[in-house]
Amino acid sequence: MTRCGAAAVRPQSFVPGRPKWWQWAAILSLDAPAVALAWQGMFARVASARLAGHHVVLLGLSVWLAYSADRWIEGWRLTVETVSTQRHYFFLRWRWPAFGVWLAVLVFGVGLALVRFTAREWVVSLGLLAATLVYLLSHQLLHRENPWRVPKELCVAAIIALGAALYPAISDGARMAALAGPVLLLFLLGLANCLLISDWEREVDALHRQTSLALQFAQVRHLARWLPVGIALLGLAQALASTGAVRQAAWCGTASAALLAVIAQLQTRLGWERARVLADAALLTPLVLLALG
Fold it and tell me: What CA–CA distance (Å, rounded) separates 53 from 212?
């Protein structure tokens, strides 16, 4: 087991408040909602579920609220001298305006849910909300520097996968059993994405005093590089063994895993900031099939 100490140095290439244009999706916390919505659409096709507009809107808002809250809390703990990413600097520099927008989005989301949710939708939504709140409370407050807490990479991957599958799974007449394989693929893709990013951002996490698997275990670097290959093989096996929309989802998972594997190999040339953005974009493959109808 290895831990990076407080001697971590902020990347020399980082200039606070001077982001590149391609960083804005991550800065505004739009990357995770985009992934969740792309796969929600694919899961709806897999489950033969008909989603209403509020299902799409509320998933996007919910993921954004959780993701931006995590970064807002992180920004609260940082200073201009220690912040090392544009996304965290944004929430440090614009702390109170961002909080105002967050509250407005929360009020709008709750109002929409009050008007449109059924009792069943309330139950499952509150269940996932409770799990997300436990994650935020544990990882940002109670167990922030505890090396034996449930890894944040596992938590984030599970929340995204379950969130994307939530409304398709509970729709009337949904084929829930068909979702098992595709949801597992998304969970593994999310885990691979998080592991790769935690490896690339080891110095950043050390400077921010944030525990990650890459800081705790040296072996994570090897796992992160080879996990996408294993996921691609699993997706290929699912695609060959299934039909219809399940096969489509499996091909999307295979393509995303292959892209992650390529990005991992090119990360040194790309730089960790570009590689991070591309690793998130690699999970958007369902958009291609959804756009084709």
Answer: 36
Q: How confident is the model at residue 4 (pLDDT cuts 50, 70, 90)?
A: very low
pLDDT in tens, 208-263: 677 767 667 777 788 888 999 999 999 999 999 999 999 999 999 999 999 999 99
Q: Give domain status of residue 159, yes or no.
A: yes
Give yes or no for a contact between 200 and 275, defined as CB atoms under 8 angstroms apart. Answer: yes
Q: Is residue 15 part of a domain?
A: no
Place of tokens 């059924």: 118
DSSP label of 149: S
Report yes or no on 175 lying in a domain.
Answer: yes
Whether 9 is covered by a domain: the verdict is no
Half-sphere exposure for 121 (CA within 13 Å, toward CB)? 18
Tokens 């001697």 belong to which residue?
7
Domain that holds residue 251: 23-292
Count of domains observed in the chain? 1
What's the pLDDT band for 279 if we cut at 50, 70, 90?
very high
Phi and psi of 51, rounded to 5°? -90, 140
- Contact partners, residue 190, CB within 8 Å, separation at least 6: 35, 156, 157, 158, 160, 161, 283
Residue type, 186: L
The tens digit of pLDDT for each residue in 160-182 reads 999 999 999 999 888 989 999 99
